[in-house]
């Protein structure tokens, strides 16, 4: 097991930042930590990294308590870009390589590998000041992976970057994971979590609300499904026809579109279409809304991630 | 090994900032040139007035009269002091208080007897508690005279013959600089501005050490396997050396280009420059760690350094009495000036100990505070 967190709690005076959280992470997983601002994600990460004292509970990484040897196996990408603007990109990565104990040819090779991996090798001599936001983020990652960590902790690594750079960063994470790196990843962006994470943990008000795969969470949390029908005319008539069908919970109209909320376990779409066709109501389009983590999050916490 | 790495990259970061370095080195040099030229007149040596000195001869024999007569008749002494007879110690004290005489000398009633029996004998000098350079002049004359007097007594004791000595050489004027250069305004301001610049280097300690303990960079470094003490030491060494390098450039530039007098050897000057850099860096780092805020610590440093400089006479030579010894600038000034002008070695040693001890105390406080902040 890479990470074994047992009942950890952290309080700041009366504020409980992290409350009795337990979490396990197996090798080669990508854990997505989801939660709104102030949920306790950063405190949780800081406790894993040994930057914040744990009030109660235990944390074991690689089946041991955190020490300097264990720290060599961990890479950390902070949310803010933490590089020296006075040094060029190469020296920045070199500096962190040395802090992790790399020396000589091994250091040079590792720096080159990390910079090539993040697509910065060609522009290694430039100051980070001259880099775009996305390139700075990639340099932030290069500094964290230069020592080829077994566990990489990334705190919102895509904040403020353009879609192309974001895709680039996500691809980098996938490649790192394929090469054997276990990743803990926090983000505000559900689609990122859904795209790359093999396991998701939702934290709110310092508590772990749910954990599992993206699909298992959606299945467990979401009890309803949505179908949107765009109709040519006779909207009122269609409402009367659909309202009595088994499983339908509610209906709403917006322009020429009827939104049907039904119980997830009852498959009633075929019946709905059949009734409308028989009544000569022309259907222009059918949109079946897939369950999302966003919806699951909303259902669990009563708020969106950006609240 | 991490200490060296952190120190190396700290220096590299500072030296890469060329614009800032040029400003930090050449603005003080320009200040030295301007102050040296503008206040040149204040440092020119003017002739000294003749010093009024009282004397009270209580000697029951004749040697006392001879001594006073010789003092009065020695031309080189007469150029410096004028002897005024007083009738009692009380009268002499009153005259000193009223500034009619700067000091007075007393020959006791056994002066002749002591001279004949080769007993230790001395001319006692009394002065005000707040005496100035005039007392030093009188003391030096009396010491010189006593040496000659004692020598002649010793020669008489051995040869039984009277001895003559050349009274014209009793007083000889020498420059106070050991290499023969007379102090100029630029020499004074080179020292005071150098010390001001070095102490202003507290900002390095504040910013560079502070970012490791407060900023996100520090958080990131603490997540690495680096020992926090190594992290602190590496940053301190880097910040200190960065400050020192700038001071060294100032010393070398003023020495070789502006012909500033740094004494007979640059080695002790470079040593004091390093010591002052260490102290300043430790001070800045301590403020930052105690406050937990780079800006507040920087503001305090910017406030304190000019105050230290002012009370040590770094801008204008004003004597603040004993208060000045609270200023690290004063410690550094004392070390520099007493070395350049071959002054009191004990004062140099004391100043070095103050700077070194201060650095140790400030660093210890920083390390304890830093440990309490971290887990």
Automatic annotation (TrEMBL), chain A:
GO MF annotation terms: ATP binding; ATP hydrolysis activity
Entry superkingdom: Bacteria
Matches recorded under Pfam families: ABC_tran
The keyword ATP-binding is assigned to this record: yes
SMART domains reported for this sequence: AAA
Domain ABC transporter: 3-230
Alphabetical list of Gene3D superfamilies matching this protein: P-loop containing nucleotide triphosphate hydrolases
The keyword NAD is assigned to this record: no
Keyword terms: ATP-binding, Nucleotide-binding
PANTHER family: LINEARMYCIN RESISTANCE ATP-BINDING PROTEIN LNRL
Protein name: ABC-2 type transport system ATP-binding protein
Organism field: Anaerosporobacter mobilis DSM 15930
From TrEMBL, chain B:
Molecular function in Gene Ontology: ABC-type transporter activity
Pfam families: ABC2_membrane_3
Occurrences of domain ABC-2 type transporter transmembrane (ranges): 25-367
Top-rank taxon: Bacteria
Keyword Transmembrane: yes
Species this protein is from: Anaerosporobacter mobilis DSM 15930
Membrane-traversing stretches: 21-39, 188-210, 236-257, 269-292, 299-318, 347-370
Keywords: Membrane, Transmembrane, Transmembrane helix
Name by which UniProt lists this protein: ABC-2 type transport system permease protein
Its membrane topology: Multi-pass membrane protein
Chief localisation class: membrane
A GO-annotated cellular component: membrane
Keyword Transmembrane helix in annotation: yes
């Amino acid at each position: 097991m890479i990470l074994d967190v047992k009942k950890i709690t952290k309080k700041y005076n009366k504020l409980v930042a992290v409350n009795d959280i337990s979490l396990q992470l197996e090798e080669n997983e990508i854990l997505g930590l989801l939660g709104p601002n102030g949920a306790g994600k950063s405190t949780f990460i800081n406790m894993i990294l040994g930057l914040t004292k744990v009030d109660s509970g235990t944390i074991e990484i690689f089946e041991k308590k955190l020490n300097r040897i264990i720290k060599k196996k961990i890479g950390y990408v902070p949310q803010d870009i933490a590089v020296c603007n006075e040094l060029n990109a190469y020296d920045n990565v070199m500096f962190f390589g040395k802090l992790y104990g790399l020396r000589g040819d091994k250091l040079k090779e590792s720096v080159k590998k990390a910079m090539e991996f993040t697509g910065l090798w060609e522009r290694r001599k430039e100051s980070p000041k001259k880099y775009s936001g996305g390139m700075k983020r990639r340099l932030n990652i290069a500094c964290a992976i230069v020592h080829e960590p077994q566990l990489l902790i990334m705190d919102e690594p895509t904040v403020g970057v353009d879609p192309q750079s974001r895709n680039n960063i996500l691809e980098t994470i996938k490649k790192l994971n394929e090469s054997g790196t276990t990743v803990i990843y926090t983000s505000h962006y559900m689609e990122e979590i859904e795209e790359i994470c093999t396991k998701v943990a939702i934290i709110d008000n310092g508590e772990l609300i749910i954990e599992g795969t993206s699909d298992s969470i959606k299945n467990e949390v979401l009890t309803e499904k949505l179908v949107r029908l765009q109709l040519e005319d006779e909207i009122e008539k269609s409402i009367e026809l659909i309202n009595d069908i088994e499983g339908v919970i509610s209906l709403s109209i917006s322009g020429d579109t009827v939104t049907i909320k039904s119980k997830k376990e009852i498959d009633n779409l075929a019946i709905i279409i059949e009734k409308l066709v028989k009544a000569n109501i022309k259907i222009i389009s059918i949109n079946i809304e897939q369950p999302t983590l966003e919806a699951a999050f909303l259902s669990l916490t009563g708020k969106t991630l950006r609240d | 090994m991490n200490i060296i790495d952190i120190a190396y990259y700290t220096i590299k970061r500072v030296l890469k900032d060329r614009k800032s370095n040029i400003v930090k080195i050449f603005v003080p040099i320009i200040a030295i040139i301007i102050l040296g030229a503008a206040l040149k007149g204040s440092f020119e040596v003017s002739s000294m007035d003749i010093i009024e000195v009282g004397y009270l001869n209580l000697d029951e024999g004749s040697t006392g009269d001879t001594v006073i007569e010789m003092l009065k008749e020695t031309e080189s002494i007469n150029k410096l002091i004028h002897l005024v007879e007083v009738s009692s110690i009380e009268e002499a004290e009153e005259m000193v208080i009223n500034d009619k005489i700067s000091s007075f000398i007393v020959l006791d009633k056994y002066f002749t007897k002591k001279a004949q029996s080769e007993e230790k004998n001395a001319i006692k000098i009394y002065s005000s508690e707040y005496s100035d350079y005039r007392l030093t002049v009188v003391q030096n004359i009396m010491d010189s005279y006593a040496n000659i007097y004692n020598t002649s007594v010793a020669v008489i004791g051995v040869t039984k013959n009277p001895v003559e000595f050349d009274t014209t050489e009793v007083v000889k004027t020498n420059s106070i600089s050991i290499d023969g250069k007379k102090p100029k305004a630029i020499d004074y301001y080179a020292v005071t501005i150098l010390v001001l610049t070095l102490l202003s280097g507290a900002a390095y300690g504040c910013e560079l050490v502070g970012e490791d303990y407060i900023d996100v960079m520090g958080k990131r470094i603490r997540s690495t396997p680096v020992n926090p003490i190594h992290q602190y030491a590496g940053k301190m060494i880097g910040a200190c050396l960065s400050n020192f390098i700038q001071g060294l450039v100032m010393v070398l530039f003023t020495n070789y280009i502006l012909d500033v007098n740094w004494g007979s050897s640059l080695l002790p000057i470079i040593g004091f420059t390093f010591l002052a850099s260490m102290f300043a860096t430790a001070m800045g780092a301590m403020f930052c760690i105690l406050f937990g805020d780079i800006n507040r610590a920087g503001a305090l440093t910017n406030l304190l350094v000019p105050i230290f400089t002012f009370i040590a006479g770094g801008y204008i030579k004003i004597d603040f009495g004993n208060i000045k010894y609270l200023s690290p600038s004063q410690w550094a000034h004392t070390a520099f000036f007493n070395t350049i002008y071959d002054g009191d070695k004990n004062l140099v040693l004391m100043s070095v100990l103050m700077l070194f001890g201060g650095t140790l105390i400030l660093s210890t406080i920083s390390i304890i505070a830093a440990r309490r902040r971290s887990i």
